[in-house]
Structure formats: C-alpha cells, structure tokens
Design goal:
Rossmann fold; five-stranded parallel β-sheet; three-stranded antiparallel β-sheet; binds 2'-deoxycytidine-5'-monophosphate
Length: about 230
C-alpha cells in the first residue's frame, strides 16, 4: 500500500509557493492547506469585529473563537470563516497590511499550529506557509523551500495584483515585499527560514510547471521508497 506523505512547502511572498503547492497537491491527489489564508482569515475576523489589534489577549481570544475551514470548488480552494466564504475578502490589500501584526502573536500561532497539525494527521497533505518545515511539521516526509530574486518576485506580485484590478508601481510592490520579508524573517516567533533538511528550489528562472514537476517527482520517488521499505 502506498502511504500518503506529508509535504511542507515554505518560502517568502512571490516565490511561487502557493500556486506550486496547490497544483502539486492536485497532481498528487493530496489535500492542499494554505496556512497564510488562515492567518488572513483571523485578521479579517479581528478587523470586522473591531478587536483592538494592540490588545494581544483580546486578539488571541477572538482567534480561539472562530472556525476556519477549507472546501474545494474545482481547482479553487475556498476559505470559510464561521461558515462564511471569505476567499476573496482575505486577499484585499488592507488584510495584507494587518496580517503581519496578527501573525507575530505567539497565542495566535499556537492556535493555528494546532489546527494545521490536525489537518496533516492522516498524511496526504501539501501544506504551505513560512514555518511548516521548521515548526508545524518538523517530521514532514519532504520539505521544500522556494525562493526567487527580489526583482522577479516583485514582477510576479505586480502582475498578480494587476489581474485582481490593483495597479501599483513596481518600486512600491518591491518595497512592500522587502518590508514583508524583513518582518517575516526577523520576528522572534517562528521566523521564515529554510529547515536544515529542506530541498531548496530557486524559482527565479523556473516556470510554475517546472516547479510542480520537480516537487511531484520527488514525492513520487519518496512514495516508491516507502512502498519498498514496507513490503
Ligand atoms: O502567504 P500569505 O501572504 O497569504 O501569508 C500571509 C501572512 O501570514 C504573511 O505575512 C506571513 C504570515 N504567515 C505566517 O506567519 N506563517 C505561516 N505559516 C503562513 C503565513
């Protein structure tokens, strides 16, 4: 019997990890878990309910009260917050601006890390974020860390925003990415970094298809090894 594995994918914004993780999961027949969407959903809840962002204990209390679920519609991952579809809402720029403050609160992270681990319990999961290989799933069967040059990441993010109807100057997008990278990698709580045993993939000159192929191939190899080991 083929055992379904747990796959961790981490990397900074614009590294292509979300699309790569989603498409790899689809090809593998695994469940895709977007942990950034969870931090975004909690941020949306906090803003909607006027919870004072600076009062950490109130933020943690609010985070503990909400229910976050994922459903799939075709190849789209839908995010439900207390049963309400918030898939588009959580991508709005004001959420992107506030999520950094929420995601650095240890109590919020503890709640989400527990939820993320429970989602990976049975295997067959591709989980994507910033601390999956280092903190959430330190024993993941395979870990990938995707990165790309800042210029390339800024171009990708700019086109992504344009597709959503948001036109921003290249330099503005680049500076926002640099700020986000700094905040994500320098925070005390689970900073963004590659796990020691992660496979590093520089996506600067790779297409999404190349990245997916690389990951799917590695997972298939590992699955085959597992079958041999357990026979
Ligand atoms: O991947 P994203 O842009 O949707 O993530 C939103 C924010 O959540 C980002 O600022 C980093 C944070 N995040 C995190 O701290 N840990 C994760 N595992 C995933 C995201």
């Amino acid at each position: 019997m083929k055992r379904k594995l747990t796959i961790a994918i981490d990397g900074p914004s614009g590294s292509g990890k979300s699309t790569t993780a989603r498409m790899s999961a689809q090809k593998l027949g695994y469940t895709y878990v977007d942990t950034g969407a969870m931090y975004r959903a909690i941020t949306l809840h906090i803003l909607n309910n006027n919870v004072p962002m600076k009062d950490k204990s109130q933020v943690v209390k609010a985070a503990a009260e909400v229910q976050i679920q994922f459903t799939r519609t075709g190849d789209r991952l839908e995010v439900l917050l207390d049963g309400k579809n918030v898939t588009d809402k959580i991508r709005e720029p004001h959420i992107g601006k506030a999520v950094g403050l929420v995601s650095e609160i240890p109590g919020v992270r503890a709640i989400l890390v527990n939820l993320q681990r429970s989602l990976a319990d049975e295997g067959g999961v591709v989980m994507e974020g910033r601390d999956i290989g280092t903190r959430v799933l330190p024993n993941a069967d395979l870990k990938f860390f995707l990165d790309a040059d800042i210029e390339e990441r800024a171009h990708r993010r700019q086109s992504q925003l344009a597709e959503q109807g948001v036109e921003l100057e290249y330099e503005t997008v680049k500076q926002e990415l640099i700020d986000r990278d700094t905040r994500d990698s320098e925070r005390d709580e689970s900073p963004l970094r590659a796990a020691d045993d992660a496979i590093l993939i520089d996506t600067t000159n790779l297409s999404i298809e190349d990245q997916v192929d690389l990951i799917v191939q590695r997972v298939r190899e590992k699955e085959a090894q597992e079958v041999t080991l357990h026979e």
